[in-house]
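ok, trying the design again with the full structure, not the truncated one.
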């Protein structure tokens, strides 16, 4: 009887250890998903401001190729000013970080991930690159509810551009 109890306790300890090991690796590979504004920044009242996470074990495919989320900034879209480009509220976007050199090589149509602090808003937004504005800034556009392009009110400084949207996954 004592031997059976001892074996049962060892079995239980092994199971508990395995569960803790799995939880450790799961939590260690957790990726925070940022909220990115794709719409007016005057009121940051969107649906995606709560904490959100994915893991490195989650699978994402683009054109048959597996995409590793650890290689990108991952953000969830809040707002609809990029719907004309197929980026809808709630979508997950994977953003490739850009160097200062790459910022000077932006192409018309690139979707930029921009750090933005103004009008009581502090966070990130996405806008479409339109044209350079001198040496240190760019002009961007967004889309109205009717999917018509509209120039952003102010140019964005190159130093605030952190990346370009590489992949867009519908939620």
């Amino acid at each position: 009887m004592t031997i059976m109890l001892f074996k049962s306790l060892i079995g239980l300890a092994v199971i508990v250890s395995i569960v803790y090991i799995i939880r450790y690796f799961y939590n260690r590979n957790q990726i925070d998903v940022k909220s990115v504004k794709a719409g007016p920044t005057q009121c940051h009242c969107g649906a995606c401001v709560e904490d959100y996470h994915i893991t490195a074990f989650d699978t994402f495919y683009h054109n048959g190729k597996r995409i590793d989320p650890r290689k990108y900034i991952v953000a969830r879209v809040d707002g609809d000013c990029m719907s004309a480009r197929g980026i809808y509220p709630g979508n997950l976007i994977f953003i490739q970080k850009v160097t200062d050199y790459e910022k000077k090589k932006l192409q018309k149509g690139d979707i930029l991930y921009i750090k933005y602090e103004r009008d009581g808003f502090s966070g990130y937004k996405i806008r479409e690159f339109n044209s350079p504005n001198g040496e240190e800034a760019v002009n961007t556009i967004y889309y109205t509810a009717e999917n018509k392009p509209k120039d952003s009110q102010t140019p964005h400084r190159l130093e605030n551009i952190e990346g370009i949207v590489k992949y867009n996954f519908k939620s």
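Keeping the full-length input from now on. Residues 52 and 139 are 31 Å apart (CA to CA).
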